[in-house]
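Input chain follows. Return structure tokens only.
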Amino acid sequence: MSPAALSQSNMALWGPRRATSLKEARRRTALVHILRLLFTIGAVLSAGWLVGTVIESSFRERHADPAAAGVSVTVHGPRFDGYDDNDRPYNLTALTAQRRRDNVALVDLVNPRLKDAASTTVEARTGVWNAELEVLDLEGDVVMTDAGGYTFTSQKTRMYVKENRVEGQEPLTGVGPIGEVKADSYEVFQNGERIVLKGNVWTRFTRKKKKAQ
């Protein structure tokens, strides 16, 4: 076979293969373009979903109730120190304290105990301390004692600690060196030097015992 005939024979053998290779290359190229397009679309959709989620979360945070978003923390053995209008110190302690989320000025207390410079103490099962107004609302087995030996009990009372004034709209029972007293409501002011009793006031005085000679 002549060289020219051999060359034509080789071209005839390689021609279909080359055409097939070109078709496969074009198919691969088209497949790559399709994959790239799908990847791009997926990335855009993912980014859009992410941005939408962030926007939605931000929107919810802006319109959420601030109180619900807060965290309520219970403090064990708290202590509050301050001074009344006469610059006399006082301290307020409790078993636990928990600040309210809807009003951070209010603190719920368990077993609160208030003591002032005159050694007057007040205790109760529960209480609410208004840190801004320095007002203490006590409820449940309220017991007030002073240095003179008097003990007053009630179920509910309000103490204006800054003003050194006490108000009570629940029945009061008092026992001391000179006798007993009962009333439906009461008020203590002028630094404890004056007590006003109202409603079904009852008193019984105890005679002082004569000293043995």
